[in-house]
Amino acid sequence: AEYGKDGSSIGGQLDVSIPGVENNTGSLGHSLGLASGVAFAAKKSGMPSRAVTLIGDAECDEGSVWESIMFAAEHRLNNLVCIIDRNRLSVTQIMEASVIFDKFADKINSFGWNCREIDGHSLKEILDTLEKTRISKKPTMILANTIKGKGVSFMEGITKWHHSVPSQTEVDIARK
Predict the structure, then answer these.
(1) Are strands 51-56 and 80-86 parallel, antiparallel or unpaired?
(2) Which SS3 state, helix, strand or coil, does residue 103 take?
(3) Rounded distance between C-alpha atoms, residue 114 and residue 108, angstroms
(4) Rounded Cα distance, 11 and 4, in Å
(5) Are 82 and 129 in contact (CB under 8 A)?
(6) Angle of CA points 98, 37, 64, to nearest 5°
(7) Helix, strand, or coil (residue 145)
(8) Angle between helices 63-74 and 30-45 (to 10 degrees)
(9) Pairing of strands 114-119, 140-145
């Protein structure tokens, strides 16, 4: 089976039949609310687990994201981590929503979160930052600056590659 093809174990969207996937992607903005609920339940139960979710920057246009940010702060969900893939591209447009992303860390911190901005292509920075979240007294938002398609010249920063599947020829070019 191949990625995105009928019968493949890895399709275009997450699916609970894939090992390690606990929830489907659903509508934009739902992941942070779901993770907030998981973190809240764990905290209420005295469980030492954490909830970590990864969202795209376009999801920050959804009201449910901001409702979840406020819920997590109100309940001091220090066992919640939200990573935003800040690649500046949605399915159809460039994401430069200045109302949302100007002074983003200041906004998130003002809601009662810890916000850290990192290079989303640096595995060391990602791991170091995730490790620091273990001792946080607040929920943590990680703004991971990335370039969609990084390293593949014909894909870098191109909206088309939000959910296109490369042809075999394109795969061969990308590998070179």
Answers:
(1) parallel
(2) coil
(3) 7
(4) 4
(5) no
(6) 30
(7) strand
(8) 20
(9) parallel
Q: List the beta strands (DSSP E) in the chain.
A: 51-56, 80-86, 114-119, 140-145
The DSSP symbol for 53 reads E
For residues 49 and 133, give the distance between their C-alpha atoms in angstroms, rounded to a whole number: 12
Return per-residue pLDDT of the chain as tens, 176 residues. Answer: 466 677 776 666 667 777 777 777 666 778 999 999 999 999 999 999 999 999 988 888 888 999 999 999 999 999 999 999 998 877 766 666 667 778 889 999 999 999 999 999 999 999 999 999 999 999 999 999 999 889 998 998 888 887 788 889 999 999 98
Beta bridge partners of 89: 94
For the beta sheet containing 140-145, the strands, ordered from the edge strand earlier in sequence to the opposite edge, are 51-56, 80-86, 140-145, 114-119
Q: Which two tokens stand for residue 48?
A: 């030492």
Question: And the tokens for 128?
Answer: 């170091």
Tokens of 147: 């370039």
For 14, residues 6+ apart whose C-beta sits below 8 A from its C-beta are 21, 23, 24, 25
By the 8 A CB rule, do 8 and 1 touch?
A: yes
User: Residue 153: which residues within 8 A CB-CB, separation 6 or more?
Assistant: none
Residue with tokens 């703004």: 143
